[in-house]
Amino acid sequence: MKITVLAGGVGGAKFLRGLREHLRATLPDGQGGTTAEITAIVNTGDDLWLTGLRVCPDLDSIMYTLGGANDEERGWGRHGESERVSTELTEYGVGWPWFTLGDLDLGTHITRSHLLREGRTLSEATAHVAARWNLGITLLPMSDQPVETHVVVAGEGAGDGGAAGGAGAGAERSMHFEEWWVRYRAGLPAVRFEQRGLEESVAAPGVVEAILGGDVVLVAPSNPVVSIGTILTVPGIRSALENTAAPIVGVSPIISGAAVRGMAHACLSAIGVATAADAVGLHYGARASGGLLDAWLVDESDSGLLPGLAEAGLRVVAVPLWMNSVEHAAALAGAALAEAALLRA
Ligand code: GDP
Ligand code: CA
């Protein structure tokens, strides 16, 4: 069975780890190898050049989480991390002091940047760094071309340009997504998001094939705007999703009207979507009426939303959506696959 997953960083990573666990527990081959193949199509809109290095936050969140190297407590980066190099960089006045790159993490960025400068594509560099971690899944960047999400904010107090920003004198300013997210904690109201480089981008090798050739496509509980939303804007991806024979099952990143973790509500409000499982489901839309989804998984606490969603033509199931352990995430992934199996039957 070929399972293709659209994913952002932390939510995507937890879901993918659960999916891998579910398959290991339920399939005889035990490794998700011959009997199940997982391909993750990962958002690269948050990527940036920082102190001469290409940083890919979402790819690395997934790689470290599935590689067992992530800092579970902090939720991002490597465990057992130190920050000696970052401290030195701050002394030299380069980089973003509020965007710490740990010493071990820098090893990944140096390797990736080295490979890119040798002329390898991001897909090739990703395959190279991922190989070390024996992830048991295939990691694909959504595109080999740089597509960077910038946030346009209104008026005073906006970014000073930083390493990648573009401060203007007018009423609106823009900054790289990571500056808005990490430095300002998404506290500056976003006017809109811009994907720079999108026109020159295409889906990375294997992405369209994974969607068209998949038996199931899962949309991870990731940020609907700046993770999943960005993946969907890459030329070629939307039409592959429209044309695939595979059922497309999405998992809500919103539970009881709140983003489980982080500031996703600030992204949703910028595009006029309420922070609610039904609003996000309707934003993705039912495939039958030109949208993305064949089915939508919401949390049990949101089961009151089912009738309204069904009326809108969306097939919805209520299951526990909290991924606060690998076992819970595995059960959630199992529920998504069960729904896909029903749709295929
Ligand atoms: P990022 O790139 O690191 O921001 O991560 P993602 O785009 O993958 O997703 C972040 C989102 O995942 C958060 O805003 C939450 O809405 C969602 N999320 C995180 N943990 C959970 C969980 O346990 N259950 C569900 N359903 N969603 C979660
Ligand atoms: Ca991200």
- Overall geometry: globular
Question: CATH superfamily assignment of the largest domain?
Answer: CofD-like domains
> C-alpha Rg, in Å?
19 Å
N-C termini distance: 14 Å
- The strand order across the widest sheet is 5-2-1-9-10-13-14
Number of domains: 2
What CATH first level of the largest domain would be assigned? Answer: Alpha Beta
H/E order of the elements? EHEEEHHHHEEEHEHEHHEEEHHEHEH
Overall pLDDT, averaged?
93
From the helix content, strand content and strand pairing, which structural class follows?
Answer: alpha/beta
State the oligomer: single chain
Organism: Subtercola vilae
GO molecular function: LPPG:FO 2-phospho-L-lactate transferase activity; magnesium ion binding
InterPro entries: CofD (IPR002882), CofD-like_dom_sf (IPR038136), FbiA/CofD (IPR010115)
EC number: 2.7.8.28
Structure description:
- With 345 residues, the protein is of the alpha/beta class.
- It folds into two domains: 1-145 and 202-345, Rossmann fold (3-Layer(aba) Sandwich), CATH 3.40.50; 148-196, no CATH class.
- It contains 13 helices and 14 strands.
- Strands 5-2-1-9-10-13-14 form a seven-stranded parallel β-sheet, with helices on both faces.
- Helix 1 (10-26) runs parallel beside helix 2 (57-66), helix 1 packs across helix 13 (326-344) and helix 4 packs across helix 5.
- It is globular, with a radius of gyration of 19 Å.
- The structure holds guanosine-5'-diphosphate and calcium ion (CA).
- Residues 8-9, 43, 46, 57-58, 227 line the site of calcium ion.
